[in-house]
Amino acid sequence: SCGGSLAYEASISVNGGKGELAVVGFNKPISQLVRELGRTFNTKDIAFTGGSMGYVNAKSNGMFLQMTVIKLGSNVQTLVFKILQSEADRLAGRQKPNGHMLRDVPAFPGSDPVFFARDDKANAGLAIAETSADAASVRSFFSSQLSSSGWTPVHPGGSSAKGGPSMLVFSKNREICCVFVDATQGRGKNLI
Length: 192
Description:
The protein is of the alpha+beta class. The chain has helices at residues 30-40, 87-93, 135-148, and strands at residues 5-14, 17-27, 46-48, 53-60, 63-71, 77-86, 112-119, 124-131, 152-155, 166-172, 175-181, 190-191. Strands 3-4-5-6-2-1-7-8-12 form a nine-stranded antiparallel β-sheet. 28% of the residues are buried.
């Protein structure tokens, strides 16, 4: 309803709960999109501080909708990861993962896992972790570790001029691994 294009849909597991995932692409600035989503879903449960990620949460008919909005580079392109869950599944999904859960991708040393979603049918996963390490160290670690494990850099992804977010993209056989490093969240933590 905000003019996006559906890129992917799947039934997923989220930190132990079940849910329905939709990934939608938009050609709008992140600040505008976060506001529009809040109005569209009639919610004030919005978090956006001007960085490269924002959140919009809504509740309707006993179901919870959590949207994570990610700005891609310096363009107006944004992705929305939308997860719809029952109350029981949302409560189960709010628990932190019990450690690093991605297969074939190493954990960044000392990072704290905060979110994990898996689509077993498509053999796809999304993990988010926090670290106090600087973004350059995170990029260096994943570039080195993934390359030595047979992954080929597709998009090297340096940082923005302001030290903002960056994305590294690797391929191996028919698999793709994207490492998004966001140093704009404040709190002395970077998201991976």
